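DM from R.C. (forwarded with permission)

"hey, sorry to bug you on a friday — could you get me a structure for this? deadline for the figure draft is monday and I only need the backbone to look sensible"
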Amino acid sequence: MQKIRAALVGCGTIARVMHLPGLKAMEAQGTVEVVAVCDSSGEALETVRQMFEIPAGFTSVTALLEHAEFDLLVNTTPIPQHFAISLAALRAGRHVYTQKPMAATLEEATILIEEAERRGLLLGCAPEHPVRPHIQAIRQLVADGAIGKVAFARVRSSHGGPETHDVPRDSTWFYKPGSSPILDMGVHGLSQITSILGPVKRLSCFSGRSLPVRVTTAGPYKGKVIEVEIDDNSLLMLDFGEATFAFLDATYCVKAALGPALEIFGSEGTIAVTTRGREVEVQQFRVSTNAWEPVAMPPPPAIRDLGLLHMVDCLRHGTPLVLDGRRGRHLLEVMTLAPESARQGRALELTTTF
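My reply, with the result:
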């Protein structure tokens, strides 16, 4: 099987803690060769090159595409840059795996999908939840009728704010137009529940600004005051059809929580999912026994970056890409319609599916 030559653009936190460790683990297995990284910050670029022993570095995407020989571009740049960089890579004949969201608008997402299809390239889109073993197992349980007809789900997709994370990052841009907790965090819960219940048909949303100012509490920017210019508190109601609904929070307002991150309620029982880091605990309540019981889940692969692992496997073996552009576009439509629903004060219909 061929070895996939990969290059990564955007040497920030997500690249350092997830994608580059994943790529290097695959490199150690002989399935990937990491040939180059790229970042507009020379300091960030050199830090990452030394950390991960990357042979080449570029401060320009144009230079990377012109001078580096590789098959797959991993796009981990800030949200507003995703579309332009992914499009440039596709036009240069490279497969693309992009962090979420894939673009800023449906029109941009469609351009990427059509460009990839026209050139016979793969366009992979985070998040990776559809290929997580426990999500696939829960999807099968629901499909097999383990809890009967699903009535609704409750999905927590929030944290206390990026300014509380102890990472070498200025979190100001998270609170600027072009970003939001829906795009940053809500996408994870949305990816999980649509992986289990399928595409959303209609949605409504409440959204607002809970705090006018945030103060960085950890990391090298500790003490920095951030003006909040976007809604930091959004609650979504999702309609999957046939009276199956889901409630999803997408906020920077959850400092701590004790309950399950995901609960699915059906006519014959309930599935509850609790996560602690990479550890996942799934329990099922059965009406027939009036009792909760643990559900054994398959262990996660040794490589943490399941999205890139899936993408690489598809490229090497020619297997179908689950994390494809149509799924990414559907998530993007939900995320862009939600604030519009909040503004209009009414439910809105979706036009995309996967």
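R.C.: lifesaver. Residues 211 and 228 are 7 Å apart (CA to CA).
me: no worries. The mean pLDDT is 96.
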